[in-house]
Amino acid sequence: MPGQDQKTETLHADAAGLDRGAALLRAGALVAFPTETVYGLGADATNDQAVAAIYAAKGRPSFNPLIVHLPGTEAAARYGVLGPNARKLAAAFWPGPLTLVLTRNPDCAVSKLVSAGLPSLAIRVPELPLAQDLLRAAAVPVAAPSANRSGRISPTRAAHVLDGLDGRIAAVMDGAECAVGLESTILDLTDDAPRLLRPGGISVEQIEAVIGARLATGDTQAKAPIAPGLLASHYAPGARVVLNQSARPEGALWLGFGRDCTGAEINLSARGDMVEAAANLFEALHRLDDMAQDGQIIAVAPIPNTGLGLAINDRLTRAAAPRG
Ligand code: TXA
Ligand code: MG
Question: What's the DSSP call for residue 183?
């Protein structure tokens, strides 16, 4: 569990360090590791609690979707749908600083929290040998945002990671300085027209040369966060969401938090634990949406606006916002 008080191990780039890093990841702990772009803050992407712990450690006020790191294209194809453009781009630039946003495979084992409730998944195959070795040793998909506190500069050395996260994560792998130093380029391939979401280590010209077409640009990620709008439309056919309901409104499905919510269809965390609640959030919304009859609303219990509660309430507020 993240906190201000754990001892953060520094792991060396040798066999013992890799074994330890891989074991920690498999056990659900947070391990920062270098890639050729910047240091990532890694967690087992199939473990909801481990993923939630990333947001807690970074102090993120909202659940941005995370990039899943895998050792190669075959591994990527187990989690995302690789169409013709994705295959071409993977052949040209993986391993390397290119992230592809793909439609999730129907049987994708990655936590819904990683996708922040979206039907898509961002996948990257890093090139740095130490990152490759760690991913192969861990043998789980690794969700990793940049290993900095929210709103701070991305780290390119282990010392930068420790500046922000010492005492909040299990370990940091001490590797070479990150060569690219700039985050990966992010391309959305979920539509017919590939779209640039974030410029980065691979240039637009390089990408256009490989796919033989111009990239749709316009709204980049920074100007138009993709998650909120998509989240709303993702739930649009389903139930209306109302917040701050400390008792079940007549006829509603009730999403509880804390121990005063007996009878709730689902409780995000009966013991009032924010990390557990965050881990359960998207799965719970999906399940309630499936359960809801026509016109039935989803009522959500009050959730304190502290710690991860900020991010949980940010998401819930978007889900409750009027639909377009
Ligand atoms: O170079 C990098 O990409 C580094 C290293 C650690 O791999 N990672 C990184 O992660 O920069 P982060 O969390 O700082 O940025 C991830 C970006 C966010 O802007 C997020 O919104 C976007 O990826 N993203 C992730 N999944 C997405 C999805 N399904 N759809 C759209 N955008 C997504
Ligand atoms: Mg970042």
Answer: P
Q: What is the pLDDT of residues 66-105, one digit of tens each?
A: 999 999 999 999 999 999 999 999 999 999 999 999 999 9
Is 35 within 8 Å of 131 (Cβ atoms)?
Answer: yes
Q: Which of 114, 287, 77, 96 is nearest to 179 (CA)?
A: 96
Pocket of ligand 1, beta carbon within 6 A: 35, 37-38, 40, 64-67, 97, 99, 101, 115, 118, 120-122, 124, 144-146, 183-184, 186, 197-198, 221, 226
For residue 213, what are its two tokens?
């077409």
Query: Is 197 within 8 Å of 34 (Cβ atoms)?
Result: no
Range with the poorest average pLDDT among 80-89, 148-157, 224-233, 248-257 = 224-233
Residue type, 99: T
Instruction: Return the C-alpha torsion angle 305, 306, 308, 314, nearest 10.
Output: 20
Report how far residue 95's alpha carbon sits from residue 169's, in angstroms, rounded to the nearest whole number: 27
Task: Give the CA dihedral 17, 154, 218, 320, nearest 10 degrees.
Answer: 90
| DSSP classification of residue 178 | P
